[in-house]
Structures are given as structure tokens and as C-alpha cells.
Specification:
- The structure holds 2 protein chains of 2 kinds.
- Chain A is 80% helix and 0% strand.
- Chain A is mainly alpha-helical.
- Chain A contains 12 helices and no strands.
- The two termini of chain A are 20 Å apart.
- Chain A has one domain.
- Chain B is an alpha/beta fold.
- Chain B folds into 2 domains: 222 residues, P-loop containing nucleotide triphosphate hydrolases (Rossmann fold); 70 residues, 2-Layer Sandwich (Alpha-Beta Plaits).
- Chain B has 11 helices and 14 strands.
- Chain B is elongated, with a radius of gyration of 24 Å.
- Chain B starts with a strand and ends in a 7-residue tail after the last helix.
- Classes of the chains: A mainly alpha, B alpha/beta.
- Chain B: GO terms for molecular function: ATP binding; ATP hydrolysis activity.
- Chain B: Keywords: Antibiotic resistance, ATP-binding, Cell membrane, Membrane, Nucleotide-binding, Translocase, Transport.
- Chain B: This is Methionine import ATP-binding protein MetN.
Chain lengths: 251, 319
């Protein structure tokens, strides 16, 4: 009860601050929209897709997963700014739940990702993308789990390194191979065997496959439950690890 | 209100390949009474902030024990948190928030209901004369205003003790005087106030009792008056050229009215005497006889800096 209240308190505060600066919402949507408008048209011929809508069915899920990964991974910067301003230290001397300090922030990130995802999905509808609503909601669940995990991990790492200068290269180094090995921009069906072999060890690759299957309306596909299970386990592990960082350094 | 025994903390720092252990706090015993302003005076790096952060549950002590407002620091830090307020040195407000939002949020972090938190915030804003700016973003505040918001945050849940880490550092003289009044007001409200400072005048004017800290240890403790009384008599500062200093020292050493004589590195002497007013004419006469020319002569009532000097061998102004 206290935990839920504390989490809600932090969530409210963080959301309020985010809304006060709507430019971030714009920036968050601007980039993916650029991909949608300027990159996606190349895909129909490149993927040999029969229609533009078919190309979008492959590209949009990848784009959303990309957004979830990157949106989450870079949240740590905000925490470092808060550490520097003394806001975290101020919270630490209160009896507020340590897990709530983390989860309130991560849930804010999940919700803001959801808003972006909905905007992008709506835009894609204009380009004749058609998705079954039930499948779409499951895909959103997958995205939420990914964002929860990446943002929690990012906060945990931020608490450990405590400096933007260390966090930026670290996150980029992690994000790049994850991105390339997940078949986000182009499906890995084109990849040579060795590359696919490595990608099989990338959990995000499973998440992308699962999300694509959902967008294709293939709810029964094994990829769906596999992707969801893997992201759920990773999200739980990520939150657990980050919560321990909070509990330790924020005792 | 605060009782500590043998509180200590060391940090490991890595320089290149070597790891060094720095004993930041080496066994601090303190007794702070209810309703007093207790000051922790010492140079930067003396261990004041580390001790304060230990008492405020922010870092775990390596050893020793402490009871704070009746709660055991080692066994029940959560209970200590409920009973204390803490105002960190480097600020604690967010640029994009308003003072009112910060106060309401902070009160609610203590489990206070929303309605009550809003009432408390309004009252605190009023008490700290911030109502006018209450709904502007913190980044628009002056240094003094922002510090007042931070103090208001520290006491929004009406703690028994509030810890203020260097509350006036970086403030202009006027804001500083204002802040002293605020701190006295906290005491008048029955709160115990624990501050750290490296300003001598602040410790002297504001604190009921002080502990002087140097190199991780408390070297003296008492009321400012008591501490200064330990340094018997006055101090006469004799300004001399470096070349003339040794001869002047020889001349004045052993004079009956000089209790203690120290040479100043840059030239000159520091004489500890019982009565400055009668010592000065005699000093002038002796030096004149010896044909020594002096540049200046000053009479000092003992200050906390002299206390620091006699305890540590250094001046607080120099360190």
C-alpha cells in the first residue's frame, strides 16, 4: 500500500515535469516519424514487398522496438542531472520506498513510450498499415516490458557511474550491437548464417520477431510467446538489479 | 538529542594503481542537547560533512554508535529518517519545479496526505517569506531565496532535529544575516539545529555550542565563550620585517608579561598576554630600545581562530 502510493507519487511528479517540457514529446516523435516518411519508402523495393502496407508491417514493429530500447537506455541522463541537483539525496533522507524511487521513474518512461508508439501507429495507419487491435495491444505489452527493462537498467548504471561522460559512451556501446543484431531496420532473414547465429543470442532479436509476428496478425506463432516470455524475464531481472543499486546506494 | 560514540568512517580512494585508505572521521563523540544550535566548525576536508551525512543516514558508519532523537542510527535508520530533516550543501531543488511543488512533494514523501502537505507548504512558504515566488520555477530564484526553500524542505515534516550542511556558503552578507535569523527561529520553535560551517564569525554568533573538527577528529568542544576563555588573555600581533623578526623574538622572549610567543612565517610575532592594553606599551618600549622598527601592532581579543590555532597549530583562515 505504502509502496503503491510512493510509486504513484514519484510517477506523478516525473510525468508532470515531462509535460511541462512538451518539446521532449515532440523530439521523441520527430525522429521515428522521419524514419517512417524518409526511410520506409525505400523498403518496398528493398524487401521485395508486394505493397507499401506490407513493407510497413515489417518496418513499423522494428521501429517501435528501436524506440523502446533507445528511449529507455538514455533515461539515466535525467537521473544524473537529478543526482547533481541534490534531488535524489533529498529523497534518500525521507522514508520513501527505494523501489518506488526507481519504479515511479521507469513507469513514467513506459507511459511516455506508449504515447509515442500510439502516435506512430496512427501515422502508419495513414499509410495503409492494418493491425488487429488485440494483436496491437500485445505488441504494446512487449514494448512496455522492453522500455521498463532498458530504463531500469539505465537508471541502475547511472547510479553506478554518476557521470554523463561515462554513461553516454557506455550506452552507445551497448545499444549499437543490440540494434544491428536485432534485425530492427532490416529483417535478419537476409543475414548470412553466422550473423543469424549471433542474433539468436540477442534477446531483442526475439522481441522484434515477436512484435513483427503480432503486426502480421500471426498470434499463434511461437515467436509471440517466446518474445513475450524473454522480455518479461529480462524486465524482471533488469528491475531487480536496478532496484538493488537503488537500495544500496540510496540505502 | 544526538549522542555519538566513536563514530568513524574511512574511504578507499584509488590513485593510479595504489589504493589508499583515507580516515575521514576517526572516532567522534558528541552530545547535542535538545533545542540548541550546535555548530561543527573546521576547515574543508576536516570530516564535518562526512559526519553529518552519517548522522543523516546517508552513509553507513564503519564503526561506533549514535542515538538520534531517541532512535538508534545503526539499527533503525528508517526511524531516524522520520525524526530528522537534512539540508544538503549543494542544493536540493529542481530547476523546473516551483517551491510549492517541491514542498508538497517532499512532505508527501514522508507519508503526509496531499491536503495536509498543501497546508504545510503554504505555511512554510509564509514563514520563509516565499509566498510571493511560490509558483515560480526554482531556477528563477536568487541564491538566498533558493536556500530558504531548501531549509523549508528540510523541516516540512516538523522534525525534532534539522541538519544544515554549510547553510550560508555562497550567500551575500545580507542573505547570510537573514539566514541566521531563520536558523534562530527554528530554535525558537523548539527544534534542535545542527550546522556545519567553516566561518568563524558564524560559529561564534549563531551557535550555542560548537565542536571544532580537524583531520577527522573533534579537537575542542564547548560554548564559544568557554572555548575562547581557555585561551587565556589577549593576543598582540606585532608586524615586523622578516629580517627583524628573530631579533625581536629574542628581545621579547622571557618578558614577564608574555605568556607565549610565536613567530609568523611571513614576518612578525604573535604574543599571548594577559592584558593587551598594558602589554602593548611595554612591547613598544622594548623594541624601540633594541632599535627595531615595527610595521604594525594589533590587539586581538581571542577568537575561535585562536582556539583552532592553539589546538591544531594552524590558522583556520590559512587551511
Amino acid at each position: 500500500m505504502k509502496f503503491a502510493r510512493d510509486t504513484w507519487l514519484i510517477f506523478q511528479r516525473q510525468t508532470q515535469l515531462l509535460l511541462r517540457n512538451p518539446v521532449w514529446v515532440f523530439v521523441g516523435v520527430f525522429q521515428p516519424v522521419m524514419y517512417l516518411l524518409l526511410f520506409a519508402p525505400l523498403l518496398k523495393p528493398a524487401l521485395n514487398a508486394p505493397t507499401q502496407a506490407a513493407a510497413y508491417k515489417i518496418f513499423v514493429p522494428g521501429l517501435l522496438v528501436l524506440l523502446a530500447i533507445f528511449g529507455g537506455l538514455f533515461q539515466g541522463f535525467g537521473l544524473i542531472a537529478e543526482l547533481r541537483a541534490g534531488v535524489i539525496e533529498r529523497s534518500r533522507v525521507t522514508p520513501i520506498s527505494r523501489l518506488a524511487l526507481l519504479l515511479g521513474r521507469s513507469l513514467r518512461d513506459v507511459v511516455s513510450l506508449m504515447v509515442q508508439a500510439v502516435i506512430i501507429t496512427l501515422l502508419a495507419l495513414i499509410f495503409d498499415l492494418r493491425v488487429f487491435i488485440g494483436d496491437l495491444l500485445l505488441a504494446y505489452l512487449m514494448l512496455a516490458l522492453i522500455a521498463l527493462m532498458t530504463s531500469a537498467v539505465s537508471y541502475g548504471v547511472a547510479l553506478k557511474v554518476k557521470s554523463e561522460d561515462a554513461l553516454a559512451p557506455l550506452m552507445n556501446t551497448v545499444a549499437q550491437p543490440v540494434l544491428l543484431l536485432s534485425g530492427i531496420l532490416l529483417p535478419l532473414t537476409f543475414a548470412p548464417g553466422w550473423l543469424q547465429g549471433i542474433a539468436n543470442w540477442n534477446p531483442f532479436s526475439w522481441a522484434v520477431d515477436g512484435t513483427r509476428a503480432l503486426f502480421a496478425g500471426d498470434l499463434g506463432s511461437d515467436k509471440v510467446w517466446q518474445g513475450l516470455s524473454i522480455t518479461a524475464v529480462l524486465a524482471a531481472l533488469g528491475v531487480y538489479w536496478a532496484a538493488r543499486q537503488f537500495a544500496r546506494s540510496v540505502r | 538529542m544526538i549522542e555519538t560514540r566513536g563514530l568513524r568512517k574511512s574511504f578507499r580512494s584509488r590513485a593510479g594503481r595504489e589504493t589508499k585508505t583515507v580516515d575521514a572521521v576517526r572516532g567522534v563523540d558528541l552530545d547535542v542537547a535538545k533545542g540548541e544550535i550546535f555548530g561543527f566548525l573546521g576547515p574543508n576536508g576536516a570530516g564535518k560533512t562526512t559526519t553529518l551525512r552519517m548522522l543523516a543516514t546517508l552513509i553507513e558508519p564503519d564503526g561506533g554508535e549514535a542515538t538520534i532523537a531517541g532512535a538508534d542510527l545503526r539499527k533503525d535508520p528508517a526511524e531516524v529518517r522520520r525524526r530528522i530533516g537534512y539540508v544538503p550543501q549543494g542544493g536540493s531543488t529542481w530547476d523546473e519545479s516551483t517551491a510549492r511543488e517541491e514542498l508538497v512533494l517532499h512532505a508527501r514523501m514522508y507519508g503526509i496526505s496531499k491536503a495536509d502537505a498543501q497546508r504545510r507548504a503554504a505555511r512554510a512558504l509564509d514563514a520563509f517569506q516565499l509566498t510571493e515566488y511560490a509558483d515560480r520555477k526554482c531556477k528563477t530564484y536568487s541564491g538566498g531565496q533558493r536556500r530558504r526553500v531548501e531549509i523549508a524542505l528540510g523541516i516540512i515534516h516538523e522534525p525534532k532535529i534539522v541538519f544544515l550542511d554549510e547553510p550560508t556558503t555562497g550567500l551575500d552578507p545580507q542573505s547570510r544575516a537573514h539566514m541566521w535569523d531563520e536558523i534562530r527561529r527554528l530554535r525558537a520553535d523548539g527544534m534542535t539545529v545542527f550546522i556545519t560551517t567553516h566561518y568563524l564569525d558564524e560559529a561564534d554568533a549563531l551557535c550555542d555550542r560548537i565542536a571544532i573538527m580537524d583531520n577527522g577528529e573533534v579537537v575542542a568542544e564547548g560554548t564559544p565563550t568557554e572555548l575562547k576563555r581557555e585561551i587565556s588573555g589577549d593576543v598582540v600581533l606585532v608586524g615586523l620585517d622578516l629580517a627583524a623578526t628573530p631579533q625581536a623574538a629574542q628581545t621579547l622572549d622571557g618578558e614577564p608579561y608574555v605568556n607565549k610567543l610565536e613567530t609568523i612565517d611571513e614576518g612578525g610575532l604573535r604574543l599571548y598576554v594577559d592584558e593587551g592594553a598594558t602589554a602593548i606599551p611595554q612591547v613598544l618600549r622594548r623594541l624601540d630600545h633594541a632599535g627595531l622598527e615595527l610595521r604594525s601592532i594589533e590587539l586581538h581579543r581571542p577568537s575561535l581562530d585562536d582556539v583552532f590555532l592553539t589546538k591544531t597549530g594552524r590558522s583556520l583562515r590559512e587551511s
